[in-house]
Amino acid sequence: xxxxxxxxxxxxxxxxxxxxxxxxLLNQPSFIQFIGDRNVRTLDDARQFILTRYLDDYERLGxxxxxxxxxxxxxxxxxxxxxxxxxxxxVDIGYAxxxxxxxxxxxxxxxxxxxxxARNTLGIRRILGITTPDNTGxxxxxxxxxxxxxxxxxxxxxxxxxxxxxxxTR
Length: 170
Prior knowledge:
Structural class: alpha+beta
Oligomer: single chain
């Protein structure tokens, strides 16, 4: 199991035991607004979501989205990791945190750690970031991590216009 550690955080692979946390995170109004409604309404839905969205990626790709925990007390606060999406040629970095942990540097800290892991361990050279144009917090995190705005895009099957950021991770 991959683990990434920073000064304040531990990022580890999700397990089905993380379903209660994921149920909470995926149903936060901010998650639904900025990322989308995943239609996860029960613990069984959350377990299935973890199995099909995350565990499969670890097995198939060797990377994925990681549960982000506070180092000092192991409390889960969000997710951060690498995603291979249909419609994007390169891997992108994604993250989401419970609102009570916003504006404390956790997204930037975890994003920087995942980018370093992608570059140094996985050998991934180019990493993307996507966000809705109105998600100013997410835009700041991507820019702070060194990603630069390239263009507006739409993912297959989605009419939402997204800002695409990219970084050469050398």
